[in-house]
Write a structure and sequence with these properties.
The protein is α/β, with parallel strands linked by helices. The chain is built from nine helices and twelve strands.
């Protein structure tokens, strides 16, 4: 079992404090859902874990199997086994999907460890079929001209190919119709197992109808304020964040 632990994490952007002491323990073999209203710091948390330099960690630590990763660059964290699927993936003209994924799979490896062309193509075909992606998608430039649903499927394709130990999935359900949501969920569920853990950021119960979380954490005002099982997500859907905030003694404001 691999453990990713966030301890008393404080994070600021342009001197504005967003995270105000997040404590969280993630482990392989488990899928955790992070829920909460807009502006509470959910996406900031995933960016800070991955090492985005625009986010300043002013206090606390991030431990990967007991070792701090705060001094590691983004690519070093990725090689450890961290993966971030962003809400708005970037377009990269001139680099095909297949080229990008193979380069990512081989990054930092010795020549004898790199995946062969034949093995890569075999695996890519298998994962694209699982996600219902057309073969031509492999030769299109990375995310260029992709619809929202295609971008999300492409992020999950990268997840399936790279097989990280931890996936940080930031609102992968955003803008998806029900068919695309089912496909994306199928891909994430295909990764479930003792060697894989995920942190799924979402506002809504509907994604968790397809990806059953082992634990649900609620964030408000830059902190984790409530944790529970999958039933907590259903409670949030029924009662709303405002009622939960009042019950816990937090001031609630929904930000755009």
């Amino acid at each position: 079992m691999t453990v990713l632990e966030i301890k008393d994490l404080h994070v600021s952007i342009e001197e504005k404090e967003i995270l105000k002491g997040v404590n969280l323990r993630l482990q392989t073999g488990q899928i955790a859902a992070i829920m909460g209203p807009n502006g509470t710091g959910k996406s900031t948390l995933s960016a800070a874990i991955m090492g985005n330099p625009n986010y300043e960690i002013t206090q606390g630590d991030i431990l990967f199997d007991g070792e701090s990763i705060l001094d590691l660059e983004v690519d070093e964290r990725a090689r450890l086994g961290l993966f971030l699927a962003m809400q708005y993936p970037s377009e990269i003209p001139g680099i095909t999907n297949a080229e990008f994924i193979r380069a990512a799979m081989n990054a930092g490896k010795e020549d004898e460890e790199k995946i062969s062309v034949l093995d890569f193509i075999t695996k890519l075909d298998e994962k694209m079929e699982l996600l219902g992606m057309r073969e031509e998608m492999a030769e299109r430039y990375l995310n260029e001209g992709f619809s929202g649903g295609e971008k999300k499927r492409n992020e999950i394709l990268q997840l399936l190919m790279l097989e990280p130990r931890f996936a940080l999935l930031d609102e992968i359900d955003s803008g998806l119709d029900i068919d695309a949501l089912k496909v994306v969920s199928k891909g994430v569920n295909a990764m479930r197992g003792e060697g894989f853990g995920a942190m799924i950021i979402t506002h809504y119960q509907r994604l968790l109808n397809y990806i059953q979380p082992d634990v649900v954490h609620v964030m408000m005002d830059g902190k984790v304020v409530l944790s529970g099982g999958a039933e907590l997500a259903a409670r949030l859907e029924q009662e709303g964040y405002a009622n939960i905030a009042e019950e816990l003694g937090y001031e609630y404001h929904e930000e755009a």
